[in-house]
Amino acid sequence: MPLHKSAEKRLRQSERRNARNRARKKELKTLIKNMQKLIEARADKSEVESAYRSAVQKLDRLGVKNYIHANKASRKKSQLTRLFNGYEAEAK
Length: 92
Prior knowledge:
The protein is 85% helix and 0% strand. The chain has three helices and no strands. By secondary structure, it is mostly helical.
């Protein structure tokens, strides 16, 4: 337990930030999983494309704001793009 007033405040701040970071990362994982499920279910191309766009947008935002490392964001975007392009090729 913190002994000083400033340490108590830091604890409160870190708990809030931790919860915020977890929520953002969870949202990203959910977006990625939704896209993968749509591809596995052979969903309509427009649905998959909208899921792809929202996942990539979230990756960009989290990478720029340092919630995840920029290289990790780039790597995930590349993986999703390959998955999406493979789905488009099968759909044709």
